[in-house]
């Protein structure tokens, strides 16, 4: 068992003799210097084997001559090498002679041999004499035995002497107990270079910043905690902590510092953090480098990252490689990612494999995947099983699926349960669902609540709903005072807000909005603009657009072309267009054709058109029979 903490070697932990670990005694300063030199020598990566052997031989000769410090250092050297049999007699001899560092290291050796109680006895001797490293080891021993009061006592002794691992272990113990003093010691350990402490301190500050944000605090505490967290993430990441590098990358990515975020993701990914490799893949994909993204996703997926496996599946699905996509979706599912089953359902649904799609949707839905529950409900509804769809819509909506709440509204509306449907639409609209906001806006218009209707229509229109933009424009249009028609030589008035909304809807292909924009342009005297919008609406199938375009062309002297558009409008059921055609053919002397269109106008209406068309039809009939 390694009692020294995060990736620490024996020399790095401070368990070997350090100046602060000795009680005052004759020759202690000289001993400290000797041991420090030995530790530095042992840590040197470029010392050759000959020099090491010579040093060991020199220490061994001194030890055999009774030099206590040489015994202690030799024992430490052998312990570090893993030669427990050779180290034990040296350390025992030095300990008996009063060397406190040897007592600490003897405890380490005995712990490695599986004698924790005997190890604790020697650690206690060294700790009482002032060894911070021994106090840390003893505190860890008591915590493992479940004796938290004794553990806290010895860890506090170690921490208060400046031992970094003691400070970290004390912070860990206090945090486990929910003691508010944990942060103080975690910070102390972090400030002294403990990378895990820096990471955990950053995580704690991150959570504090999040809770401040959730509470709606505006005193800057949350922002300060977030900035502090980022600095500790940086320190931990700079010391090689891969999870800290991942978190730092996520913070930078959220802020928009993508280049630096990518560097930290890369650092973390190279150290084996699968989530960082996955995140790096998404950054590269967004930058347009799909091939490099796939490399990192593959690396992450092979290390068990379900999100990366899903990303690979989606990439292959986009390329039409459905078998490979399915394989990666299954890998994601095997990694515990419910999105894998959901994506398999989507893949099967796209291929028309409805039965298999339902199977995968159900698997993900039963695991709590809300969008899978919504997709399953849609599939059941399309199959005519409304009763089976409803509970899945409800489950998905309760889990937070905005689409499910909207779909549930459609389901209730189809049954005539408008009140329940409206509540579903309101829930979805509150979560930002565009079409739900439109439905709520229209319901408020029917109720006469124009103020709330306008609020919802603005939300939907602003989110891109052409229908909402048209209805909002119509609402604003009805409020504005009547404007006199444009006269020749008059200046054209500026566009109002309602005109801007009409134009937004028209530019999105809304035919009624296009006709309305054309009418407003005609009222301003802009015949070219009016004709453009009428034509666009007419070509999209608007009979009103075709009729108005015909009127405009007739006024400009292009009656033959106008007749073409009136014919299209009349064929689509426009009574006024049919009446216009009857008049055109009557003037041309084509009485039979005129009578046919007049008869069509009588049938199409509206009432005033039918009345005029009937008189014209009778007159043409009399003329033909004369």
TrEMBL record:
**What is the name attached to this protein's record?**
Sel1 repeat family protein
User: PANTHER family under this entry?
Assistant: ERAD-ASSOCIATED E3 UBIQUITIN-PROTEIN LIGASE COMPONENT HRD3 (PTHR11102:SF160), SEL-1-LIKE PROTEIN (PTHR11102)
**Which species does the entry assign this protein to?**
Streptomyces brasiliensis
């Amino acid at each position: 068992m390694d009692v020294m903490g995060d990736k620490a070697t024996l020399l790095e932990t401070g368990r070997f003799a350090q100046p602060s670990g000795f009680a005052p005694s004759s020759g202690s300063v000289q001993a400290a210097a000797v041991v420090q030199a030995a530790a530095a020598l042992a840590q040197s990566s470029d010392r050759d084997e000959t020099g090491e052997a010579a040093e060991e031989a020199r220490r061994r000769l001194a030890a055999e001559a009774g030099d206590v410090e040489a015994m202690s250092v030799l024992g430490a050297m052998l312990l570090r090498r893993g030669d427990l049999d050779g180290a034990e007699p040296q350390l025992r001899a030095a300990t008996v002679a009063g060397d406190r560092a040897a007592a600490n290291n003897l405890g380490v050796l005995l712990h490695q041999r599986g004698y924790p109680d005997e190890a604790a006895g020697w650690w206690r001797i060294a700790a009482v004499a002032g060894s911070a490293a021994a106090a840390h080891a003893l505190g860890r021993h008591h915590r493992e035995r479940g004796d938290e009061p004794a553990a806290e006592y010895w860890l506090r002794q170690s921490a208060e002497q400046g031992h970094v691992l003691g400070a970290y272990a004390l912070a860990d113990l206090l945090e486990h107990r929910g003691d508010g003093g944990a942060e103080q010691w975690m910070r102390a350990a972090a400030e002294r270079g403990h990378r895990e402490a820096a990471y955990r301190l950053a995580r704690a500050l991150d959570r504090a910043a999040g809770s401040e944000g959730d509470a709606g605090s505006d005193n800057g505490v949350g922002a300060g905690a977030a900035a502090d967290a980022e600095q500790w993430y940086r320190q931990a990441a700079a010391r090689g902590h891969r999870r800290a590098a991942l978190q730092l990358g996520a913070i930078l990515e959220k802020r928009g510092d993508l280049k630096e975020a990518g560097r930290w993701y890369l650092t973390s990914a190279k150290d084996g953090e699968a989530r960082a490799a996955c995140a790096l893949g998404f950054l590269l994909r967004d930058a347009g480098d799909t091939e490099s993204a796939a490399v990192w996703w593959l690396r992450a997926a092979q290390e068990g990252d379900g999100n990366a496996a899903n990303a690979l599946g989606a990439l292959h699905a986009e390329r039409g490689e459905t078998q490979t996509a399915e394989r990666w979706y299954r890998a994601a599912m095997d990694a515990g990612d419910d999105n894998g089953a959901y994506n398999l359902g989507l893949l099967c649904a796209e291929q028309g494999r409805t039965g298999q799609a339902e199977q995968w949707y159900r698997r993900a839905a039963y695991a709590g995947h809300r969008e899978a529950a919504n997709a399953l409900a849609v599939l059941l509804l399309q199959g005519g099983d409304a009763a089976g769809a409803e509970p899945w819509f409800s489950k998905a909506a309760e889990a937070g699926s905005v689409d499910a709440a909207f779909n549930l509204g459609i389901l209730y509306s189809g049954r005539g349960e408008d009140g329940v449907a409206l509540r579903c639409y309101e829930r979805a609209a509150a979560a930002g669902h565009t079409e739900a906001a439109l439905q709520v806006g229209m319901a408020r218009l029917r109720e006469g609540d124009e103020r709330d209707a306008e609020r919802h229509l603005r939300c939907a229109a602003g989110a891109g709903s052409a229908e909402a933009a048209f209805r909002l424009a119509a609402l604003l249009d009805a409020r504005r005072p009547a404007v006199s028609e444009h006269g020749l030589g008059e200046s054209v008035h500026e566009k109002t807000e309602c005109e801007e909304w009409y134009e937004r809807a028209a530019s999105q292909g809304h035919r009624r909005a296009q006709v309305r924009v054309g009418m407003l342009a005609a009222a301003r005297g802009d015949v070219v603009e009016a004709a453009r919008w009428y034509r666009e609406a007419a070509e999209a199938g608007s009979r009103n657009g075709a009729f108005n375009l015909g009127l405009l062309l007739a006024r400009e002297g292009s009656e033959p072309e106008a007749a073409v558009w009136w014919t299209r409008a009349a064929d689509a059921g426009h009574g006024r267009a049919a009446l216009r055609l009857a008049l055109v053919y009557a003037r041309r002397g084509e009485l039979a054709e005129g009578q046919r269109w007049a008869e069509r106008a009588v049938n199409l209406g509206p009432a005033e058109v039918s009345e005029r068309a009937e008189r014209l039809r009778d007159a043409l009939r009399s003329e033909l029979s004369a």
